[in-house]
Amino acid sequence: MIAALRGEVLHVGLNYGVIECGGVGYKFLATAKTLATLRCGETACVLTTLVVKEDALTLYGFTRDDDREMFQVLQSVSGLGPKLALAALSVMGAEDLAAAIGGEDVKALQTIPGVGKRMAQRLTLELKDKVARFAGTPTADTAAAAPSGGGPVVNSVTEALVGLGFTEKAALPVVEAVYAELPTADTSTLLRAALAQLGKQV
């Protein structure tokens, strides 16, 4: 099992990164928040989980061990696969997810793209006892993002744009405007839309 990647960052995409290890470029899917920490040409270390399916081997990358563990715990829920688990971590970190699940905050869980009322209820029912160890003070990122229109989603997309070279001053208003037009869009969709708008300003 591939538990971590350490090497030169070759590429950072909208929802994935590529790190070279021993002459081989490894592609991994990750949240915008994780990708924002990577810089092409620099050495980086990413914690990973390998998901094996009949037709594919997919790596998922994380900057924190808690997020990687939460990613695995989420998939123990019936009907919740790796893509939805990553979407959950794109909206909330491990601590915030634990707080929402432990507090049976169904409405908060429904802010995750792809999670409806039934899935949110299933999360609280099946994981309430399993996520207690992740519980803690909500992350600073979530607290800082609260005043903005899109909360964690806007914050994550803004961080990703800063990682791609834009200033926060330029990126944040564009992301908030795009979110106002597409309030139900996921992180990747908002990132693409914001990039398109920023590209017009150049």
Automatic annotation (TrEMBL):
GO terms for cellular component: cytoplasm; Holliday junction helicase complex; Holliday junction resolvase complex. SUPFAM superfamilies: DNA helicase RuvA subunit, C-terminal domain, Nucleic acid-binding proteins, RuvA domain 2-like. Transmembrane segments: none annotated. CDD domains: UBA_RuvA_C. Residues 72-91, 107-126 form the Helix-hairpin-helix DNA-binding motif class domain. Has three domains with a flexible linker between the domains II and III and assumes an 'L' shape. Domain III is highly mobile and contacts RuvB. Belongs to the RuvA family. Homotetramer. Forms an RuvA(8)-RuvB(12)-Holliday junction (HJ) complex. HJ DNA is sandwiched between 2 RuvA tetramers; dsDNA enters through RuvA and exits via RuvB. An RuvB hexamer assembles on each DNA strand where it exits the tetramer. Each RuvB hexamer is contacted by two RuvA subunits (via domain III) on 2 adjacent RuvB subunits; this complex drives branch migration. In the full resolvosome a probable DNA-RuvA(4)-RuvB(12)-RuvC(2) complex forms which resolves the HJ. This is Holliday junction branch migration complex subunit RuvA.
